[in-house]
Amino acid sequence: MNHSKIIVGVRKALNNWLRQFKVYIDPGQKLYKIEEGLLNIFKWGRFEPLPRLNYVLVFRSFYAKCEACSLDENADSYYQVSLVHNKNRKIITHETKDISEAFTVAEQIAKGLSLSLKDAASVPGKSSWKKF
Question: What is the rounded distance in angstroms from the CA atom of residue 114 to the CA atom of residue 124?
Fold first, then answer.
């Protein structure tokens, strides 16, 4: 029997007091579940097989508060951790405003699934492969 540790990510940019989103990854069984909750009481979602994954990606996602707002370095943003599959499809597994938290979760996922980690968040406009 495989006793792998389940990795949990939280979609903080989408969470609020009414709706919550969590992503569960079971590296040993190669399964994932996107769980949506309502009022932190009702929860739904089911485990599904992971697609054939290419790599784990950390990137910075900007949220403009208005159409005329600029997306400069002071813009509201989140760091997102995603599982990339089919070359450009993504399963967003974690969102946070803390870059170190994003990389902690990304490294945990990359190690658990034996995937490479691509850093598209640290240096604007440049991506690199992170070694650990």
Answer: 26
